[in-house]
Amino acid sequence: MIDEAISNTSNGGYDKEAYKLKKKEQKEKAYKIIDEALDELKTNPQFFKEYIDVQSRFDMYTPRNALLITKQMPEAIQLKTRNDWRDSKISFKTSKPKTMIIIEPGESYINKNGEEITPINAKEVIDISETNSKPNIKNYDKKFILQALLHECPVNVKAVDSLENNKVCEWNQEDKVIYVCRSDDADLIIKSVATELAKVGLVENNYDIDNDKADCIGYMVCKKYGIEAPINSVDNLHSKYSNMENIDVANDLTSMKEVLLDINTRMGRYLEEKRRETKNKEQER
Q1: CA dist list (Å): 212 to 12, 167, 190
Q2: Would you list the domain boundaries of the chain?
């Protein structure tokens, strides 16, 4: 009896070689999708805008993964593996939820030449829209969002009554100060400050100041926190990228993502602190 049970389990169980082949095919597919996405980024401004929106929601993800999401499910909000959703006691709407492929670094190892190698693996993930759960959307007062932007700001910020050329905000590199006009338009101030902080971040990360990239970063910051903001740089960057190699476009996207993550990380710490303070006050009542 036990021999038969073991035999049946082995025949229908884990096939290591089949699994390795599947993962190899998934990784090849992922890189093919990334190349297609980079090509489309250079030819389709609307796709560029979709990518920017995806990267704003998935600021922890690399641009290549943001491109994978944009090509496969641009409306995605929150991604986890099938097992991670189940471990969270979250069920799926159907027995076969829609999956997509992203890539992630595997465990590093030293090869026979003494070189450290970090393999890249493909991973199947599922969006929360395929589950019976709802995304946890946090809403913040715009006052707190602006305060979070300025929290631990790498340069000084000063309020002024006006700036030249009707600018709302301007980073003066010589003064090492961001000047902000007094205004009741919170959305405009937040976008303007985020854009100028993006310029600071580009310089701090050893990149050249690029007004179009800063505009995109400012927009992505606003998008993450539900602030209505214009984006004026898509056509310019699209034109710039149309004459670049895919690897150079990917590197340019990475420079934006790095600055975006720096700003959002700083903001996130402040907003989480305020959230805890508010929760503690409510519990004390």
Answers
A1: 55, 16, 17
A2: 15-130, 142-284
Q: What is the DSSP string of 144-200?
A: HHHHHHHTT-SSEEEEES--GGG-SEEEETTTTEEEEE--S-HHHHHHHHHHHHHHH
Identify whether the C-beta of residue 81 lies closer than 8 Å to the C-beta of residue 112: no
User: Three-state SS for 103?
Assistant: strand
- Whether the Cβ atoms of residue 115 and residue 153 lie closer than 8 Å to each other: no
Q: How far apart are CA 235 and CA 220, in angstroms?
A: 16
Does 206 have pLDDT greater than 50? yes
State mean pLDDT over 132-138. 89
In angstroms, the CA 202 to CA 175 distance is 17
Residue in this structure with the two tokens 């150079």, named with its chain if needed: 248
What pLDDT, in 10s, does the model give residues 167-180? 999 999 999 999 99
> How far, in Å, CA of 266 to CA of 160, rounded?
25
DSSP helix/strand/coil, 89: coil
Give the burial class of 125: count Cβ atoms within 10 A of its Cβ; 0-12 exposed, 13-18 middle, 19 or more buried: buried
Give me 65's structure tokens.
């993964």
pLDDT confidence bin for 285, thresholds 50/70/90: low
Average pLDDT, the chain: 91
Helical H segments across the chain, by residue range: 2-11, 16-43, 45-57, 63-72, 82-87, 142-150, 186-204, 211-224, 234-241, 246-284
pTM over 0.85: yes
Residue with tokens 């599947």: 22
